[in-house]
Specification:
It contains four helices and no strands. The protein is mainly α and 97 residues long.
Length: 97
């Protein structure tokens, strides 16, 4: 099996490759090999999208979240909401260290 050394890779590129690898559940080496194979086999100039970004379930979730934006129905101001949160808190249990 052949070996390839890449020099002077920018920190940004390395970080992006690591994030792609993690998202795609691959090692860094596996992600780089996948990108190389995909480019060579498909003749494309850009690597394939990260897994999940084109998933229909992700698109539905994004759409549902976008419909919720700006629909908060509470007419109270921030201070009133914070007071209610503080009032609802419990002291919890006592801890002796």
């Amino acid at each position: 099996m052949s070996c390839l050394t890449v020099r002077d890779l920018s920190p940004r590129t390395l970080h992006s490759l690591k994030m792609r690898a993690k998202t795609n559940h691959r090692s860094l080496n596996g992600e780089i090999l996948f990108i190389f194979d995909w480019v060579v086999e498909s003749g494309m100039n850009t690597p394939p999208p990260v897994a999940g970004l084109t998933d229909p379930a992700v698109a539905r979730q994004k759409s549902a979240m976008e419909t919720l934006i700006g629909t908060w129905g509470d007419k109270r101001d921030t201070e009133e909401i914070a007071k209610d949160i503080y009032a609802a808190r419990t002291f919890g249990r006592e801890v002796n260290l």
